[in-house]
């Protein structure tokens, strides 16, 4: 059963993202590039609203995950350490984003498939639905709170990811944009890539026999599912590195 703190941040998150969506629909048309396609306009609105949970998680997911790490009985029992209030609050913001973003993407499915292409659209919808169903269940069962807290903490990189998307759409260049891109690259590297060795080390420290014996089939499925984000982070990082190398490569003179 989720505590009141979860429902509070869930409600705040839903209200804030819906408010940003409405505000974007009012203000953004004045910012759109000339002849900006309709299917990209909806992606623009939800990209703007997604910045809110990324900022909120700085104040809840990061300290909550660190607090849980310090509260563990042992490294081997980290997967069964109960979530603290900060992580429940963080989960409220995360789930509210998945719900609001997922509903808009479902209602405007044709628009988003055209804007994102079907493979990425299906990946995002699966991510949203599975997270809404599995994350609260795992928290309620005191399972995987540290891992989910880590995943929520990595969403902090979306502050730079989403805003740089606007720079790209507006075709902005210059020193500030270059610095912002560098900040995104550094944040992604620190939060999503350099933490992978720690995750691998933890995998060999877990008391798997006791964990499997005391964990439901649904949470065991989520445990296996947790390996997917790491693979996706590496895949996206390879694309980011390629883009960065292309940007730094000297342009050939005509």
Please describe what this structure looks like.
It is a single chain. The chain starts with a helix and ends in a 6-residue tail after the last helix. The chain has 254 residues and is an all-alpha fold. The protein has one domain. The chain is globular, with a radius of gyration of 19 Å. The relative contact order is 0.12. Helix content is 78%, strand content 0%. Helix 3 runs antiparallel to helix 4, helix 4 packs across helix 5 and helix 4 packs antiparallel against helix 6. The model has no long low-confidence stretch (mean pLDDT 91). The longest helix has 24 residues.
Condensed summary:
With 254 residues, the protein is mainly α.
**How many domains?**
1
Morphology call: globular
Helix run count: 13
Distance between the termini: 65 Å
Order of helices and strands: HHHHHHHHHHHHH
Q: How much beta, percentage-wise? A: under 5%
- The structural class is mainly alpha
Contiguous low-pLDDT stretches (5 residues minimum) are none
Number of strands: 0
How does the major sheet shape up? Answer: none
Mean pLDDT, all residues: 91
What portion of residues is helical? over 70%
Q: Over all CA atoms, what is the radius of gyration?
A: 19 Å
């Amino acid at each position: 059963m989720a505590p009141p703190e979860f429902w509070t941040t869930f409600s705040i998150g839903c209200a804030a993202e819906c408010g940003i969506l409405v505000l974007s629909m009012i203000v953004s048309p004045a910012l759109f590039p000339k002849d900006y396609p309709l299917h990209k306009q909806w992606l623009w609105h939800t990209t703007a609203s997604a910045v809110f949970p990324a900022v909120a998680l700085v104040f809840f997911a990061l300290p909550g995950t660190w607090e849980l790490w310090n509260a563990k009985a042992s490294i081997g029992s980290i997967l069964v350490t109960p979530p603290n209030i900060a992580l429940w609050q963080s989960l409220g913001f995360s789930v509210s984003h998945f719900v609001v973003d997922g509903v808009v993407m479902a209602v405007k499915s044709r628009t988003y498939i055209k804007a994102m292409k079907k493979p990425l659209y299906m990946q995002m919808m699966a991510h949203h639905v599975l997270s809404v169903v599995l994350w609260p269940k795992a928290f309620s069962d005191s399972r995987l709170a540290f891992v989910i807290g880590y995943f929520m903490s990595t969403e902090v990189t979306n502050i730079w990811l989403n805003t740089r998307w606007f720079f790209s759409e507006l075709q902005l260049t210059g020193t500030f944009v270059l610095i912002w891109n560098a900040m995104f690259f550094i944040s992604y590297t620190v939060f999503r890539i350099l933490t992978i060795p720690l995750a691998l080390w933890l995998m060999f420290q877990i008391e798997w026999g006791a964990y499997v014996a005391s964990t439901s089939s649904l949470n065991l499925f989520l445990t296996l599912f947790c390996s997917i984000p790491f693979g996706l982070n590496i895949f996206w990082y390879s694309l980011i590195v390629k883009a960065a190398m292309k940007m730094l490569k000297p342009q050939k003179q005509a």
